[in-house]
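ARCHIVE CARD
Drawer: 12
Card no.: 0347
Subject: one protein chain, sequence and derived structure
Cross-reference: see card 0346
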Amino acid sequence: MTIDKFLSLGQTALELGLINGLTVLSLFLSYSMLNVCDLSTDGCFTLGAAVGALVALAGYPWLSLPAAMLAGAVSGFVTATLQTRMGVQSLLAGIVVNTALYSVNMALTGNKAALPMNKTPTIFTMAKGLFKDTPLAGQSVLLVMLLITALVILILCAFLRTKLGLAIRATGSNADMVRSSSINPTFTTTVGLCVSNAMTAFSGCLMAQQQKNYEVNMGSGMVTVALASLLIGGVFFGKHRPIPLRAVGAVLGAFLFRLVYALALTLDMPAFMLKAVSSVIVVLAISGPYLRTQLPLLLKSLKSRRSAAPEGGRG
């Protein structure tokens, strides 16, 4: 692989990693802060892509962003309602909403599985026109995503330092303590899931505009990718680090996941093997911290066995 090809591969991985990084940040809020495992991520990502594509096709690319976020917030509200007001367990609530969102997405697009956007103006084509005839013309997508990701991280970190944000974090740590402090955990859980799903839908909208295409299964496996990226980021910036560093680590994990995925594509691997590659990355991300703690113990055990072997031979 030439240097130019590797740099191009790295840029593509960084662009997709930044887009997926918004979904990882949504799991950072719901899973790491709120301690809720939301499995509606796949459907919510596709919902944001569907709404964003429809609004962009109507001629309003900028309006598609808040529209997608609003749709995601509604999805999060439904998930939170099932959990907090109807007694449905969080895992099951996410599965139910994720299943229902497939029908919702098909209904929104008029029973169409795909919406091509090749001739549709998007925020990325507008940025490309803005940087036309400049050295940054080929970096327009990367620059837009760097700006958006930085703003999202700043806003999320500022939000988590407010009274409401602190209440959400406290709910994830100890809901009973929050309840005894006259804070309604139902409200904080609902707000947390609404904000989380809004970011997921925002990510889906940006993905559809960047790919210039909407496809009904484009969110398939996104929760797996996001969770693996979150765990990879945790290797660099663990839970005892400040929240801004942990948020940056989550986005860094998304980039590294996409980079490994892109390198696997260069090996001429069959398409059906890519899911297996994702699974291997997830397993390594999950087991990595545990294996890192067990490795010194294993080396110590091997060292003690080797030192004991000569003594046994002399005996």
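Annotation on reverse: The chain is about 75% helix and 0% strand. The longest helix spans residues 274-314.
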